[in-house]
Design brief:
481 residues; alpha/beta; four-stranded parallel sheet; 19 helices; 41% helix; globular
Length: 481
């Protein structure tokens, strides 16, 4: 039997937070005992289910390091086209390793930027290998897209809005014929047959309504209903997307997705920062999970998602990092605090309460990723997934509730142990399955080798982004231009 954990146990779920002093024992992949202990025996630590990152892209190199910062989403996407090429395993292992050190035990990898689109299957095998090396649960959403590669309009329309020399460079570098919808779906299902296991869940990953044809989206909905396979996609991330989708779908983008059968408990969507009340009600009715990505939305000028109103309407909420965090350090515990402070309500208004936020950030997130859900986490028979934090309470004069300490103080520096499916992933602030310092150094060396080419492309990308800014400012983000 692995070494038991003793501390104040926080069990999110059911609208409450049950905090008791216990020793949690586990063997193989299951909790074997949850035994009460004296309060003084638990004083040093808190134990809770691991955090879950319900929307991410596993960027080993942070966007800020690539010069992609302080830009609206649409301009940022253009600048991010110039990332240096590196070993996909190194890229993903670095991203997952950093996240595990902040207490994340389940992570979505929406793989939207392959190093080589012609070898995406090989790269996704490396994603799964990196996850198994680090030891975390992952959902791999295989990105599907077949239109509007350059912006929210047909490619030739966007190219026509750029200076000729920029348009030609963008055409050569970024345009390639997409595979037919049936071939893209077959890729997902072949990878799922190869990679799926208790810790890896391959999902359909349509990039978003802006980038997918109706034929592709209908096929995703059909195959998801037939196979039970989950779907993950972006939706209504920015104000410009809202304007485009309103023009493209007069009946409403959410109503369109519902009409083709895509809204269901199998679907999770990222951002939803520009939902309307009636759309929230529809998502709640259909059981769709919505990932709140607060730091990402703030970084990319997308605004603040209406999380409190979604909670009031009964939407299934989860949380994600999306490759950003408050201090650009992948600290999921700081992200939890930001979500709490931003969405808990103003004045006498009650918003997204801490018990619901903790559930969304832990057990609900793991469920949305396809990792299942225990009726009672950290109880005998439940999955042996647990996060042990140093209990920062030395200066308290009056005992404080564990959730308050967690929400007000915890950072990645408090993480002592992370156990996923009975395997110790983090111990004493270090990964057990990966030498992260060595992996970071190797990734740095590889991306610096390609940095000169990336810098050369950056000027083209800047002019491309400025062309997009003018295009959208003129309101041309309508189908047909």
């Amino acid at each position: 039997m692995a070494e038991a954990a003793t501390g104040w146990v926080i069990r999110p779920g059911g609208g409450c937070l049950c905090c008791t002093a216990q020793r949690i024992g586990f063997a193989a992949e299951r909790v074997t005992e949850a035994v009460p202990v004296a309060a003084e025996a638990a004083a040093a630590h808190s134990i809770m289910p691991p955090l879950a990152n319900a929307h991410d892209h596993a960027r080993g190199v942070r966007p800020t390091s690539l010069g992609a910062f302080d830009l609206p989403l649409e301009m940022w996407l253009a600048v991010m086209t110039g990332a240096p090429v590196a070993d996909p395993w190194l890229v993903v292992a670095n991203a997952l390793g950093r996240q595990a050190l902040s207490g994340l035990g389940a992570i979505m990898v929406h793989y939207t930027r392959p190093q080589d689109p012609a070898r995406v299957a090989a790269e996704l095998r490396e994603v799964a290998r990196a996850a198994r090396t680090v030891g975390v649960r992952v959902a791999i959403a295989v990105a599907l897209r077949d239109e509007n590669a350059l912006g929210y309009a047909p490619d030739e329309t966007v190219l026509g809005a750029l200076p000729p020399e920029v348009a030609e460079a963008v055409r050569r570098r970024l345009l390639r014929a997409p595979a037919p919808p049936a071939a893209q779906i077959r890729l997902v299902e072949d990878l799922a047959a190869e990679l799926d296991d208790p810790l890896v869940d391959v999902q359909y990953g349509p990039y978003g309504l802006e980038w997918c044809s109706e034929a592709l989206l209908r096929l995703v909905a059909e195959r998801s209903a037939m196979t039970g396979r989950r779907v993950h996609m972006h939706l209504l991330e920015s104000p410009i997307q809202r304007a485009y989708l309103d023009a493209a779908f007069p009946q409403g983008p959410l109503r369109f997705l519902d009409d083709i059968g895509l809204l269901s408990p199998r679907l999770s969507i990222a951002h939803a920062a520009h939902l309307r009340p009636e759309e929230m009600a529809l998502l709640a009715e259909r059981g769709v999970a919505v990932s709140i990505n607060t730091s990402s939305n703030l970084n990319l000028r997308n605004g603040i998602a209406p999380a409190a109103e979604m909670h009031r309407q009964g939407v299934r909420l989860v949380t994600g990092l999306d490759g950003f965090s408050v201090d650009d350090d992948d600290d999921a515990l700081r992200e939890l605090r930001l979500n709490w402070m931003l969405h808990r309500g103003v004045g006498l208004e009650e918003g997204w309460p801490l018990p619901a936020l903790l559930e969304a950030s832990t057990i609900a997130g793991r469920e949305a990723l396809g990792g299942g859900r225990d009726a009672t986490p950290l109880a005998p028979g439940a999955a042996a997934d647990l996060l042990v934090l140093r209990r920062d309470a030395e200066d308290l004069l009056i005992p404080a509730e564990e959730p308050a300490l967690l929400a007000q103080r915890a950072t990645r520096a408090h993480v002592r142990r992370l156990v996923v499916a009975g395997r110790e992933v983090v111990r004493g602030g270090r990964l057990t399955g990966l030498d992260l310092d060595a992996a970071r150094a190797e990734l740095d060396a590889q991306v610096r080798t390609g940095a000169a080419e990336a810098r050369a492309w950056r000027e083209v990308a800047r002019r491309y982004a400025e062309g997009l800014r003018a295009f959208y400012a003129a309101g041309l983000q309508r189908r047909g231009g």
